[in-house]
Amino acid sequence: MELENRYVPGDRVRLLTLLERKLLWLSTWMIHHANHIRPNRDGLKVGGHQASCASVVTLMTALYLDVLRPEDRVAVKPHASPVFHAAQYLLGHLAADKLTELRALGGLQAYPCRTRDADDIDFSTGSVGLGAAQTILASLVQDYVRLKGLSPAAVQPGRMVALVGDAELDEGNVYEALLEGWKKDISNVWWIIDYNRQSLDAMMSDRLFGRFDALFESVGWRVVTLKYGKRLEAAFKEPGGNVLQRWIDDCPNALYGALTFSGGAAWRKRLEEDIGSAPGLRDLLARHDDGELQSLMTNLAGHDMESVLDAMHAIEDDRPTCFIAYTVKGYGLPFAGHKDNHVGILNPDQMARFKLSMGIEGGAEWDRFAGLDEAPDILSNFLERVPFAARYPRSHDAPLIAVPAALEVSAQGRMSTQEGFGKILHEIAALKDDFADSIVTMSPDVTVSTSLGPWVNRRGIFDQIDRQDTFANEKIASAQRWAMSNDGQHIELGIAEHNLFLALSAFGLAAPLFGKRLLPIGTLYDPFIRRGLDALHYACYQDARFMLVATPSGITLAPEGGAHQSSETPLITLGQPGIAAFEPAYVDELAEIMRWGFEYMQAPGGGSVALRLSTRLIDQPDRTMPDDFCESIIGGAYWLREPQPDTEIVIAYSGAVAPEAIAAHEAILEDIPGAGLLAITSAKQLHDDWMASRRARISGRHEAMAYAEKLLAPLGSGVSLITVVDGHPASLSWLGSVAGQRIYPLGVDRFGQSGDLPDLYRDYGINDYSILDAVARVCIRQQ
Ligand SMILES: Cc1ncc(C[n+]2csc(CCOP(=O)(O)OP(=O)(O)O)c2C)c(N)n1
Ligand SMILES: [Mg+2]
For residues 350 and 70, what is the distance between their CA atoms, to the nearest angstrom? Predict the structure, then answer.
């Protein structure tokens, strides 16, 4: 892809250098204001990262005020969020008073946040490494919608850009994403590494030097190293310059940082000691006073506007490119280069001096152009022509996708929810409509074993180029077709589950990012949700919308053993904001949950959906699905057997243990004829609704009543609930607080192990006998 080269050297560089100064000032002042000027009511440090911002100011000025286009999507290094907001302020997208609210309630968030920041953040960041990896998966989504012609015509392809702290490259998820990106032949990704060789605690190991180039090149990326600025490059050409260059090249990171912090006199002393006898070197030093020497020795390319612009504008193709930009952490601030500067904040005296050096008068701190050596109308004229700001906001809206009134599935005889899931998708795959065409499935090497096979057979696997199914061509029998093309609607990922969540996150943002709404469904084995927890949280935090299908689950996976069995996953989804979670027992419930889920994934104020499914075959009920029944499935529970008003016992179950609960319930009916049997399809829906109702009552809506309260309160506080789930018992035991009823929780709170169902259900206390035993204990008031 050819990108237009709009770079005209000359005045542009001068103006950008002035504005760079302004971004340094504003980001430093925003943090100072939040910490030292805004009233502090709790004595807590407000924080903010002046050094991390200063490190990346040149790069961000070049990007936001010159290089980027509206269609580009950026993950900003988390600790540089004040620079981003300051740039949006200069561009007129943020009011000045917003800058005074950094890290305040309702104000600018500590780290870039899609949902809470008001100025058009593309990707949230904060947990280091995720933003970078996200751009790789986002580029896959861009290719997906582009190659299928799904984006509106006006939406141009853009670059997926990550501004990355160098320590972020310690995160393993970065390499998982790089590998997946290589396999998927991604394009249009830029990573700009802020190579200040400092992390949080200290300087980074010198041994890392040179490693990154090889790493990126091995996955097909172009590496552009921005090491020395124009002035240092010129000095290297003077007599003695080659010795100076060798000295800097060999200088350990810590020494470079220490000398940067100490300043010109320290540089002079050290250079005289180390290489003072080299021909020309003393003259070179003599031509610079201490201030000039400090400025020369820290003239790294990541702070040299011209070098940065040259490098970025030189890229005219779509090959993934990593810029390794040498920088100084805290550049231009008193703690530049100090190993402890990550959390450093200028004290009031330092700030007063810095303010003076920036030419800012008292009262003009928030002024857009104060202290800049140029007429305001020239600067504002320049800003009005910034390409990135040609469209604002840059995020897209996309039409809703109509979801069928019911999802077809014939659930008869014995079937598992996992099998039902496969059948439902298989039926959808036969539809010829926008709904079916908007679904995109993905799985980390467990496509077939999570029952996506029938869908893939009908809809195919997505790839940039056509790839034949060699086994089919060779006429080797296989149930699974494995051809790939642009038409495919399944993304086959490598086994790294973390990438699944980042892919769901990216596909789940297709509407705002690329103008085409998609309905992503990701499948994985339930226990391996743990592998991707941070990315799951990340995806939800940035309001990506997707359906997560976790199957198989629980000790019901019997012979597969403890490494594959899960128990705490219902607690994970219960605690995760932004995702509705269901554990249905029957396939008709699942069909309704999925139908609702596809709408919920598109609804303003909606969210993602998690399904915990099972491979256990159970007898499917033959029943109709009236609206109020469907509503109760989505609400989280329904009475499979309504309790009599005076009953003392309710058995409440969730998921695959339905047969045990039903059997136990039948067994007690003779003695306790009024006992109720509650089918729980979603502990989380019940819980969230309960919390929401309480909040509503607190805010004056006294009539608000949670669905769980409607179900349980009429039974009175004398009732005992025996809850049973193939998962952690705490996922249901909170139900006792809804109406002050006693709970006898059954579930799995130990590591699993191999066995068959009868043995395991007995051992872990979730078989029908365990339920009956619980009933007996409850009746005689024993624990
Ligand atoms: C996953 C994760 N672990 C730990 C942190 C805490 N943390 C914040 S910044 C940082 C070091 C960042 O260093 P670098 O990426 O090089 O940023 P810079 O030097 O530009 O500030 C750490 C460990 C975090 N934000 N995310
Ligand atoms: Mg760093």
Answer: 37
Nearest alpha carbon, ligand 1 atom 26: 127
Q: What is the pTM of this model?
A: 0.96
The 10 Å Cβ neighbour count of residue 353 is 12
Cβ < 6 Å from ligand 1: which residues? 52, 55, 77, 79, 127-128, 165-168, 194, 196, 198-200, 329, 342
31 token code pair: 């943090």
Helices (H), 36-158: 50-62, 81-90, 96-99, 130-147
- 751 in Cβ contact with 680 (< 8 Å): no
CA distance 51 to 333: 7
DSSP 177: H
State the closest ligand 1 atom to the C-alpha of 55, by its place in the atom list counted from 1: 20
Checking 107-114 for CB contacts under 8 A at 24+ apart, the result is 108/81, 108/82, 109/81, 110/47, 110/48, 110/81, 111/78, 111/79, 111/81, 112/75, 112/76, 112/78, 112/81, 112/84, 113/541, 113/542, 114/542, 114/543
Q: For residue 174, which ligand has an atom nearest its CA?
A: 1
Q: Give the total residue count for the chain.
A: 783
Peptide bond into 552 cis (omega under 30): yes
Q: Report which of 451, 639, 478, 472 is spatially closest to residue 549, judged by C-alpha positions.
A: 451
| CA 293/CA 306 separation, integer angstroms | 20
Number of the ligand 1 atom closest to the C-alpha atom of 164: 15
Give the ligand with the smallest distance to the CA of 133.
1
Reduced to 3 states, what is the DSSP secondary structure of residue 618?
A: strand
CB 502 within 8 A of CB 539: yes
Kind of pairing between the strands at 490-493 and 484-485 = unpaired
* Residues whose CB falls within 8 Å of the CB of residue 296, separated by 6 or more in sequence, listed in order: 231, 232, 235, 288
The rounded Å distance from CA 501 to ligand 2 centre is: 26
3-state helix, strand, coil in the chain (%, to 5): 45, 15, 40
Q: Note the maximum CA span of the chain.
A: 104
What is d(CA 335, CA 333) in angstroms, rounded to the nearest whole number? Answer: 6
330 C-alpha to ligand 2 centroid (Å): 10
Which atom of ligand 1 is the closest one to the Cα of 79?
21
Q: Ligand 1: which residue has its CA nearest to atom 15?
A: 165
C-beta of residue 753 within 8 angstroms of C-beta of residue 561: yes
List per-block mean pLDDT (blocks of 10 residues) for the chain, which spans 783 residues: 50 96 98 97 96 98 98 98 98 97 97 97 98 98 96 93 96 97 97 95 80 94 97 96 96 95 97 96 96 97 97 97 97 96 96 98 97 96 97 95 94 93 98 98 96 96 92 90 93 98 98 98 98 98 98 96 95 98 98 98 98 98 96 98 94 98 97 97 98 97 97 93 98 97 97 97 98 94 72
Q: What is the pLDDT of residue 154?
A: 87
pLDDT of residue 531: 97
* Residue found under tokens 């809809």: 459
Hey, is 489 helix, strand or coil? coil
CA of 663 to the centre of ligand 2 (A): 61
Nearest CA to ligand 1 atom 25: 127
Q: What is the DSSP letter of 228?
A: B
Measure 174 CA to ligand 1 centroid, in angstroms. 14
Residue 41's pLDDT is 96
What's residue 276's pLDDT? Answer: 94
Q: Atom 9, ligand 1: which residue's CA is nearest?
A: 200
Q: Which residue has the tokens 């946040």?
A: 113
**DSSP label at 368?**
S
Q: What is the DSSP letter of 381?
A: H
DSSP line for 291-345: HHHHHHHT-BGGG-HHHHHHHHHT--S-S-EEEEEE--TTTTSTTTT-TTGGG--
User: Residue 196 C-alpha to ligand 2 middle, in angstroms?
Assistant: 5
What pLDDT is attached to residue 5?
A: 47
Confidence (pLDDT) at 9: 56
**What pLDDT sits at residue 4?**
47
